[in-house]
Amino acid sequence: MTDNISRETIHNEAIDPDFIDAIVDAGADRIRTCIQCGTCSSVCPSGRRTAFRTRELMRKALLGLKDEVLSSPDLWLCATCLTCLERCPRQIKVTDAIIIMRNMAVAEGYMLPQHRKSSKKLLETGHAVPIDDANREIRKNLGLKEIPPTVHSSDEALADVQKIMERTGFKKLIEEEKEEK
Predict the structure, then answer these.
(1) pTM summary value
(2) Residue 122 and residue 129: Cα distance in Å, rounded?
(3) What domain range is 166 assigned to?
(4) Fewest CB atoms within 10 A around its CB: which of 14, 129, 130, 181?
């Protein structure tokens, strides 16, 4: 079993000793009990199909490799299925920790282009996947209204959703991109 964390990585990376404290304080209180057994990686359905290694992400977080974790595309490969929690011998809420780290990543300006695009669609239309002409036709053929009774059919509701996104800071988060280091 090889890990991508070498001695050079640890010595050359900026280690943030407060990173793990921030994750714990946000709700992943048992993450420090991780024994690096690899169960989370071995049961991860996403890890079977992608380069995602849950154990490696947790290890980097524990080491305080904040920038490496938050800028990693792997952070977004978790399917949030909770299989890791169900099998973890320490009952670590790995999925919660990953969601916390994703929130931190977005707050620092890191977001995958696909997520940013979906988020911008949400801001513009009130839906991450807006109704297009093909979907309208399908709905019509099924005997449904072409436009569902959601923000698609109400300018007032869309304005309310956009106001919420503005006030919660969501709009600002999706518009700011982290410059590559």
Answers:
(1) 0.75
(2) 8
(3) 113-175
(4) 181
